[in-house]
Amino acid sequence: MRRLIREIGPCTLTPRVGRSPFESLARAIAYQQLHDKAASSILKRFVALFPGRRFPKPGELLAMNVRAIRAAGFSRPKIMALRDLAEKTLDGTVPTNRVIRTLQDDGIVARLIEVRGIGRWTVEMLLIFQLGRPDVLPVGDFGVRNGFRIAYGLRSMPTPKKVLQYGERWRPYRTAASWYLWRAADRAKNVEAGNAVSI
């Protein structure tokens, strides 16, 4: 890890503060299993259903005609996930910005995975990229594990358990370690792409 930090330079991870957990998770649902461009277009059409809003509120989403949301490009399972997210935001399962800041990481994960279509990985991305939590190691993430494989010169992909065990030495800065592992994976991908072009 020391070598990786030296080669890559300072960590430039900057959390996107300002979005509510509801909005962040709704956007995450939109992006699941889709390319960025397609998901972005669907979200744009979805938000346009709520004139004058930067993003709809949970109650507005629940009041919106399901056919209109479907016409914006959301699949039926994603609409069900969005509606469940809205309901669980209104009943307090999904906390507000103010409340979520008072919760421990594990408590946030436990509450948010109750939402249909939201798994641990999605919540960990929210912890890292929205809340800026410093000690998150998403071992279920392919990029983190691949970065670990590359950085430590392993022949095969490490298991999540192995990365989690090794990652104990990075506490309480496992988010920064994750960022460096992602950069290691990106760097290797760029090198491979360059080699493919030169051939």
Number of helices: 12
Give the averaged pLDDT, no decimals.
92
> What is the percentage of strand-forming residues?
under 5%
Q: Overall 3D geometry?
A: globular
**Class based on secondary structure composition and strand pairing:** mainly alpha
Radius of gyration: 19 Å
Could you explain how this protein is built, in words?
This protein is mainly alpha-helical and 199 residues long. Helices cover 62% and strands 0% of the residues. The chain has helices spanning 2-8, 21-31, 36-48, 58-63, 66-72, 76-90, 97-100, 105-112, 120-129, 142-151, 160-167, 174-198. α2 runs antiparallel to α6 (76-90) and α10 crosses α12 (174-198). The protein is globular. It starts with a helix and ends with a helix. The relative contact order is 0.13. Residues 195-199 have low confidence and may be disordered.
Give a concise summary:
The protein has helices at 2-8, 21-31, 36-48, 58-63, 66-72, 76-90, 97-100, 105-112, 120-129, 142-151, 160-167, 174-198. It has 199 residues and is an all-alpha fold.
